[in-house]
């Protein structure tokens, strides 16, 4: 469930080796949320003036004076998962982790639209609006599952709107109890919030599809404003306490209500998808990718986000996909891209669009020009989101993006993977990184390609990249076959897992931040697990 190097199992530590430069980069401001283990503050970037949210977690020490091992696993797991997913616009952007002697600081995108729970509590949604939100949640789940991440606590409190606008983007904000879980892997530890807990979680034997049950509960709530279980009336209407064993019994056995209003006025397609997601037999329950293809979601306004989106209209999708690959894989793909012949037909379309931005054929485009392209109205992307998407691209010293970087980020790598060129390109890239010709990429060589001649700013940067790439046992370095596996993993992620952000999806989203904040944001207020 947790990605830990074998040699680190059971090892006591006094620090995470995160950057200690928080106070130099940010000015901490007002507190906007509080829980048992963390507080959330607004902070301001001292250089750019950008406002962010900061989750402050006081360090928990064991009786021996070292960091509590459970606290270490939980924090590192949350940081690793947030880092892996932050390239997606369906997830609250993660700026980075910092630490001082007393606390860990997680710097996050500042969202101002409040949690989904607040809007469900005030009213149920119409079908089209509900379908859009269910599709966004399912995209997030599909992205997580494609990377072997189980969210485990999918509930309306853990999704926040970016702004107060009615059609604001919805983003996942809390991965505190999420875990790494491969397809077919079984987890035996009950975790999560009871009202969205799948039957197999109650039985303490579950896998990735438990997340789909939770999505089904959220979809039911969006459409009806209530839960499908009898205990709903006592818990939320009469405000009575319901014993855990009674809740578990109803989750396992109670008939689910698809008869009471408004089900008599909702479409058969809406009921069909919710019923499929709430199938107590997890083997019959669809995967997130399968659920995204359901006709109720395909009928939803603005759902044309598939693989057939033209390249020049799918740039935001491709940037998101590249952003979720992980730093080590991004570096590896850059090296592969650098060895693709300039006259290769596989990059002809990418070259054509790049030349529109670089008419003098200089081989580079100013960062500011690309940012302008994202913000000119072609896409419904805020300025902050444009910076997030482009910030994962490597820039030259004069602030430009090279054509090689353009190819690495926007290439349909699955097609290249199937071509006869692939194996040769991978070997050339491997040998380009293997400076000493040893046949193994050493820690020093990896740090050089990740962080440059000056080295990584924080000691954990290289370890985090290795954890992200699931190469924890590569203590002696990475061989050619591991390098091949790194590049092949996730290479088939479909574009329709990511939002196009074309105007037809969210015409009024401007990304301006409202001052209204919510104390339950970022998962800091402790759930009563009901």
From TrEMBL:
<keyword id="KW-0106">Calcium</keyword>
<dbReference type="Pfam" id="PF13202">
    <property type="entry name" value="EF-hand_5"/>
</dbReference>
<dbReference type="InterPro" id="IPR011992">
    <property type="entry name" value="EF-hand-dom_pair"/>
</dbReference>
<feature type="domain" description="EF-hand">
    <location>
        <begin position="421"/>
        <end position="456"/>
    </location>
</feature>
<dbReference type="GO" id="GO:0004674">
    <property type="term" value="F:protein serine/threonine kinase activity"/>
</dbReference>
<dbReference type="GO" id="GO:0005524">
    <property type="term" value="F:ATP binding"/>
</dbReference>
<dbReference type="GO" id="GO:0005509">
    <property type="term" value="F:calcium ion binding"/>
</dbReference>
<dbReference type="InterPro" id="IPR017441">
    <property type="entry name" value="Protein_kinase_ATP_BS"/>
</dbReference>
<dbReference type="InterPro" id="IPR018247">
    <property type="entry name" value="EF_Hand_1_Ca_BS"/>
</dbReference>
<keyword id="KW-0418">Kinase</keyword>
<keyword id="KW-0723">Serine/threonine-protein kinase</keyword>
<dbReference type="InterPro" id="IPR002048">
    <property type="entry name" value="EF_hand_dom"/>
</dbReference>
<feature type="binding site">
    <location>
        <position position="55"/>
    </location>
    <ligand>
        <name>ATP</name>
    </ligand>
</feature>
<keyword id="KW-0808">Transferase</keyword>
<dbReference type="InterPro" id="IPR000719">
    <property type="entry name" value="Prot_kinase_dom"/>
</dbReference>
<dbReference type="InterPro" id="IPR050205">
    <property type="entry name" value="CDPK_Ser/Thr_kinases"/>
</dbReference>
<feature type="domain" description="Protein kinase">
    <location>
        <begin position="26"/>
        <end position="297"/>
    </location>
</feature>
<dbReference type="InterPro" id="IPR011009">
    <property type="entry name" value="Kinase-like_dom_sf"/>
</dbReference>
<keyword id="KW-0067">ATP-binding</keyword>
<keyword id="KW-0547">Nucleotide-binding</keyword>
<dbReference type="Pfam" id="PF00069">
    <property type="entry name" value="Pkinase"/>
</dbReference>
<protein>
    <submittedName>
        <fullName>Uncharacterized protein</fullName>
    </submittedName>
</protein>
């Amino acid at each position: 469930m947790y990605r830990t190097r074998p040699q680190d199992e059971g090892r006591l530590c006094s620090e995470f080796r995160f950057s200690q430069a928080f106070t130099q980069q940010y000015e901490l401001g007002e507190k906007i949320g509080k829980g048992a283990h963390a507080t959330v503050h607004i902070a301001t970037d001292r250089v750019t003036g950008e406002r962010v949210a900061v989750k402050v977690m006081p360090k928990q020490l064991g009786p021996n004076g070292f960091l509590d091992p459970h606290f270490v696993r939980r924090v590192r797991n949350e940081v690793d998962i947030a880092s892996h997913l932050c390239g997606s616009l369906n997830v609250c952007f993660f700026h980075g982790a910092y630490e001082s002697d007393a606390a860990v600081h997680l710097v996050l995108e500042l969202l101002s639209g409040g949690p989904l729970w607040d809007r469900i509590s005030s009213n149920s949604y119409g079908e089209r609006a509900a379908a859009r939100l269910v599709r966004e949640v399912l995209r997030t789940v599909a992205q997580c599952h494609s990377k072997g991440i189980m969210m485990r606590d999918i509930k309306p409190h853990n999704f926040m709107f970016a702004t107060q606008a009615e059609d604001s983007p919805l983003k996942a904000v809390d991965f505190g109890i999420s875990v790494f879980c491969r397809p077919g892997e079984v987890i035996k530890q009950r975790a999560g919030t009871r009202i969205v807990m799948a039957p197999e979680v109650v039985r303490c034997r579950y896998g990735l599809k438990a997340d789909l049950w939770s999505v089904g509960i959220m979809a039911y709530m969006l459409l009806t404003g209530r839960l499908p279980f009898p205990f709903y009336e006592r818990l939320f209407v009469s405000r009575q306490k319901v014993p855990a064993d009674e809740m578990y019994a109803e989750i396992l056995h109670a008939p689910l209500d698809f008869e009471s209003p408004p089900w008599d006025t909702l479409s058969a397609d809406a009921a069909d998808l919710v019923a499929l997601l709430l199938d107590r037999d997890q083997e019959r329950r669809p995967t997130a990718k399968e659920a995204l293809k359901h006709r109720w979601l395909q009928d939803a306004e603005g759902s044309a986000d598939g693989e057939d989106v033209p390249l020049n209209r799918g740039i935001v999708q491709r940037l998101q996909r590249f952003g979720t690959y992980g730093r080590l894989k991004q570096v590896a793909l850059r090296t592969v891209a650098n060895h693709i012949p300039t006259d290769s037909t596989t990059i002809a379309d990418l070259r054509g669009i790049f030349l529109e931005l670089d008419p003098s054929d200089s081989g580079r485009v100013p960062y500011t020009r690309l940012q302008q392209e994202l913000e000119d109205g072609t896409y419904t992307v805020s300025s902050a989101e444009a910076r997030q998407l482009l910030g994962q691209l490597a820039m030259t010293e004069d602030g430009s993006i090279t054509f090689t970087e353009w190819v690495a980020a926007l290439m349909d790598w699955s097609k290249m993977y199937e071509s006869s060129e692939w194996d040769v390109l991978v070997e050339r890239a491997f040998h380009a990184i293997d400076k000493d010709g040893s046949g193994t990429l050493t820690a020093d060589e990896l740090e050089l390609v990740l962080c440059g001649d000056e080295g990584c700013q924080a000691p954990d940067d290289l370890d985090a990249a290795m954890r992200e790439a699931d190469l924890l046992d590569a203590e002696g370095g990475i061989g050619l076959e591991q390098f091949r596996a790194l590049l092949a993993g996730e290479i088939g992620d479909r574009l329709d897992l990511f939002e196009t952000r074309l105007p037809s999806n969210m015409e009024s989203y401007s990304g301006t931040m409202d001052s209204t904040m919510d104390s339950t944001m970022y998962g800091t207020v402790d759930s009563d697990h009901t």
